[in-house]
């Protein structure tokens, strides 16, 4: 798949005015964003993800490395050409950034007016976009008359005004409640599927990645530490940072407190097994229990769907002689099943 965005060896450092210390926000990042995909970029506060998005739209230039968007190396052209390039990149913000003195239609029309688009064409495009985001009937309302979710839909409409190839959503759902978050994520997915816009979603919420992204890049301390298909990353995270994020989204493994309660109520060994959409997986789990003469009681679990494929964990109490339980755990692992023994606190 062709890359719309290419980052090669990108580093961004700052010198702090108060101490003179050099701080590196992004370090040595190599990353491709494929044409037509939704890429989730996730990281905790300070991971460098917001700096990364400012490098992609050339609001900041890297200390070293190159940023290329739609075949144009933004780091090698003058500022006037970068301003032109930014018109192909839409931006959706966490705090909406709407003009309070302008109507909803006026907010959406603003980038078109700046670009010199004729009024008749502006009006046509504004009506088209407000209809797309479900707010045509609120065209002459003002931002303070809208809910947070409606404001973000206006922000999305405005970001789409100039027909961008790329849309950057920087923590676009962080200020919203869960129901409204779902609506905004569904709208972004429509933008991707129906309009063909490539989207980079910057977030600290793995659940948002699970619901919308095709691929995910995980950032920690300025570096991309893991990148891949969202299902593959959820089903087999390779770094501790990614494992922490996956746990927050799936809630399929018992917490330490829950494990302690399970051990109080169940005298046997507590083990969790990873569930994927692999054919015959449940049959192999059941066979391992039957072959080793252990009793297996399901005591905790959760299975979700990502990109129409199942993923999660089931937690069992295994009863029987220690040697039989050891054999059962060994049989599960020999069958290619990921097993975690939930140790007592």
Automatic annotation (TrEMBL):
Keywords: Amino-acid transport, ATP-binding, Cell membrane, Membrane, Nucleotide-binding, Translocase, Transport. Pfam families: ABC_tran, NIL. This is Methionine ABC transporter ATP-binding protein. One of its GO terms (molecular function) is ATP binding. It comes from the Bacteria. Residues 5-246 form the ABC transporter domain. InterPro entries: AAA+_ATPase, ABC_transporter-like_ATP-bd, ABC_transporter-like_CS, ACT-like_dom_sf, MetN_ABC, MetN_ABC_transporter-like, NIL_domain, P-loop_NTPase.
């Amino acid at each position: 798949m062709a890359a719309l965005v290419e980052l090669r060896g990108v580093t961004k450092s700052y010198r702090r005015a108060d101490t003179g210390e050099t701080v590196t926000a992004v370090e040595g990042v190599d990353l491709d964003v494929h044409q037509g995909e939704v890429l989730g970029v996730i990281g905790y506060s300070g991971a460098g993800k917001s700096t990364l998005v400012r490098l992609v739209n050339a609001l900041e230039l890297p200390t070293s490395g190159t940023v290329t968007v739609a075949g144009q190396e933004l780091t090698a052209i003058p500022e006037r050409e970068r301003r032109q390039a930014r018109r192909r990149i839409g931006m959706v913000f966490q705090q909406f950034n709407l003009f309070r003195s302008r109507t909803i239609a006026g907010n959406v029309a603003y980038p078109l007016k700046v670009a010199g688009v004729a009024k008749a064409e502006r009006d046509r495009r504004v009506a088209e976009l407000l209809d797309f985001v479900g707010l045509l009937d609120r065209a002459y309302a003002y931002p303070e008359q809208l809910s947070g979710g409606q404001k973000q839909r206006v922000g999305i409409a405005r970001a789409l005004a100039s027909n961008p190839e790329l849309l950057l959503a920087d923590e676009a759902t962080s200020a919203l409640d869960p129901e409204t978050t779902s609506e905004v994520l569904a709208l972004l997915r429509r933008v991707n599927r129906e309009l063909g816009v490539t989207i980079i979603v910057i977030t600290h919420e793995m659940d948002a990645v699970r619901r919308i992204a095709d691929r995910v890049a995980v950032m920690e301390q300025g570096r991309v530490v893991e990148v891949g298909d969202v299902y593959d990353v959820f089903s087999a995270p390779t770094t501790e940072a990614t494992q922490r994020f996956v746990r927050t989204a799936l809630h399929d493994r018992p917490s330490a407190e829950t494990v302690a309660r399970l051990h109080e109520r169940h005298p046997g060994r507590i083990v969790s097994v990873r569930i994927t959409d692999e054919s015959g997986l449940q049959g192999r789990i059941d066979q391992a229990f039957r072959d080793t003469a252990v009793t297996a009681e399901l005591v905790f679990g959760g299975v979700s769907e990502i990109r129409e494929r199942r993923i999660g964990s089931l937690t069992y109490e295994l009863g029987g002689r220690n040697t039989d339980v050891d054999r059962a755990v060994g049989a599960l692992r020999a069958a290619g099943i990921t097993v975690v023994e939930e140790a007592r606190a």
